[in-house]
Amino acid sequence: MAALFESGRAADLVLAALLVEACALWALARFAGRGPGLAPLLPFLLAGAAFALALRAALTGAGWGSVALPLLAAFAAHLWDIVRRWR
Questions:
Q1: How far is the C-alpha of 57 from the C-alpha of 35, rounded, in Å?
Q2: Which domain holds residue 19?
Q3: Phi, psi torsion values for 9, nearest 5 degrees
Q4: 69 alpha carbon, distance to own chain's centre
Q5: For residues 41 and 24, what is the distance between their CA atoms, to the nearest angstrom?
Q6: HSE, side-chain direction, 13 A CA sphere, residue 85
Q7: Which of 4, 19, 28, 44 could form an S-S bond across to 35 if both were Cys, CB 3.0 to 4.6 Å?
Q8: Structural domain count of the chain
Q9: How far is CA 13 from the centre of its chain?
Q10: SS3 of 1, please?
Q11: 80, 60, 73: which is closest to 11 by C-alpha?
């Protein structure tokens, strides 16, 4: 289990789960006409993906810039989501 985290593969699993979730939401909206679709959830999914990238960078010992940049992207996506929901 330690190797899963030390290699950063745990973050890769989170990214894969987000991709599967996005595809499922898109397919549900496209083919079944149900659910919110992908567009309203895009900022939320992007924030999660950026956090997973920051986690991967931190777990693998990347430099601080490689951790900070995805965190900044997650913050921007979060702000986008808040502004969109506020309207």
A1: 33
A2: 2-86
A3: -65, -25
A4: 14
A5: 12
A6: 10
A7: 28
A8: 1
A9: 11
A10: coil
A11: 60
Phi, psi of 81 (to 5 degrees): -65, -45
C-alpha 30/C-alpha 47 separation (Å) is: 23
77 is written with which tokens? 């996506």
Residue in the block written with tokens 């900070």: 68
63: exposed, middle or buried (Cβ count in 10 Å: 0-12, 13-18, 19+): exposed
Task: Tell me the pTM.
Answer: 0.88
**Structure confidence by residue, pLDDT tens digits, 25-75:** 999 999 998 888 888 899 999 999 999 999 999 999 999 999 999 999 999
Q: How far apart are CA 13 and CA 4, in angstroms?
A: 10
State the Cα–Cα distance between residues 33 and 15, nearest whole angstrom. Answer: 26
